[in-house]
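User: Sequence for Thioredoxin-interacting protein below. Tokens please.
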Amino acid sequence: MVQSAGHKLRVFQLLFSDPGRSFYSSGDKVSGSVQLEAAQPCKVTGLRVTAAGCARVEHRGGKNRKSRSQEVEYLKYEEELRLEELLSKDSDGRFLLEPGKTYSWKFGFELPPAGRLVSSYKGKFGCVCYYARAVLDRPSQHGLQCEREFEVEEPLDVNRPDLLAPAAASKQKKVTCMFIPDGQVSISAQIDRKGFCEGEDITINAKFENTCSRIVIPKAAIIAKHSYLADGHTKVLHQKLSAVRGDHIISGMCDMWQGKTIRVPKLKPSLLGCDIIKVDYALMIYLHIPGSEKLMLELPLVIGTIPFSGVGSRTSSMSSQAGSLSSWASFPSAPPSYSNIHKDLRVDGPRTPLLYDYDGGEDEDEEGGLFMRASEMYYPPPPAYSEVDQDPVNPPQVVQVF
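Assistant: Structure tokens for Thioredoxin-interacting protein:
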């Protein structure tokens, strides 16, 4: 909006018809109006509205830190508004804005169909932006401009067959100590589908084995990978969004996650279809190994906008899951963990560090180590019992205990 006596205009602004709308999608109509109010008599020659949307990447790289940039256009629109509908034209083809009056002209355009538009995005090295701009032409002067951005969000349905299919992977690693073999660790993991939306829980089934001499810790995290392409060079940024962890696994033991969950936090949907910017998500499952690099595997995720309906054929998903889990059948179910007992039942007391869990600076929000408690302060004793028969009908009898 322009408010300037020097420009002889008190108001020059572009407004959308539905200012409370959060976003538009392909095929939607974007409409609004351009308002003008003069502070003193003012002559203009034309008024037009343009709309544009493009993806832009800019970053530096290489030995000389050369700047690289690239753009891709997704929306282009221009409309000449008819000033003569509200204003009179003089012999020179100019229109007069009288002070004290507010003039308004409507505009509208339709967004491209599905497949030709990508969602709005703003990142460290690039963005996808959409805006509408009004340009007011004046005689013998530069044109005045005002613009307003709008968001585009393309629908992404996680109920597509390819996103309902499960994802599974396994990986192992040999561990060494001073170049001497020290056993190995392994991970096998599966999730029942690839597509999720904000607020949904991802159910993880995993098996961890540890035959090395160290105590290892299983963890899982949702990560985002942002890729920016410019002039044939790609810059990639990784971001850790949320994480869960399991109990430590001592040497010669294994552990299983059966139905362990991690919730999808509030985040933007996967960015698909853009030629130069891509945002992918993955579930990273890994083992922290003190004194060695982590053992990591990634399962692909697609974050959508239309949540899982729970309706549809899941035969292939279930059969694949059964096949993946059949190799785990020989392992007994994991014993109940004291961590499942309500916190109020625990007795607070001094704690002695057992193992510090340094994770390379990625888990600053986690505890600094694992702890054990003194034996006399574990949990409340079992319920009291009596060695005297409390039957009210028969007389009390003393039961001898040998």
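Confidence is low (pLDDT under 50) at residues 1-6, 313-379, 398-402.
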